[in-house]
Amino acid sequence: MSKDTETEIETKTDPKEKIVREFLRDNPTFLDKNTDILECLVLPHNSGKAVSLVERQVGVLRDRNKEMRARLDNMLQTAHDNDLLFEKTKRLVLNLLEAKNLSALIETVYDSLGKDYGIEFSSLTLLGDEKKLPRTMARVSTMEKANERIGTLLGANRAVCGILREDEMTFLFGERGRNVGSVAAVPLRYDNLYGILAVGNSDPNFYKSSMGTLFLSYIAEILNRVIPSHLK
Length: 232
Known about the structure:
Blueprint: H1 3-12, H2 15-26, H3 30-33, H4 35-38, H5 53-98, H6 102-116, E1 121-127, E2 139-141, H7 143-154, E3 160-162, H8 166-173, E4 182-190, E5 192-201, H9 214-226, H10 228-231
């Protein structure tokens, strides 16, 4: 290309493009050393209206590369989220083990679910005689009343997710139950049924029957190991 032609092109070129042109001209091996840039470039072959086979193959490979990158980004994000969840859960377990009494233990549960996990509504209900149980942040109900109000939930052998009746919401969350749209609840058992743990969200579609409940079930298993000893 003659100098006059180059001068004409540079005159018509956008300032940013001019910088790129000058850089590539001064660094002719740049693309050889940075092949990842080539993956983003569109380099059509001069084959008229027809799309060359090479160009088509490059397009397919570029699309596959984008898909693989998206999958990798998703895997990395999932791994990051799992790391954060592990750290929060480890912190909860350690704090539960350090709790000196039932009141401190229950407070730890509420504090962790609300602040650490960012759960909108949380409720831990203990079943028994309110006069005989230590005073804590937990709700307390007799077994008879609980069976009458949330018998279906107590009879489940796993966590239950979805929308509950208004009276069930009220039983679990008190007056705040009117603002709860959906719930995930799991019975607490250690030899015998002694309580129920529930978390809620104002969005009716947040907790669905199809969602996984591994986390909530794991928290319940931890509580089943630490709470009963404080109820004796």
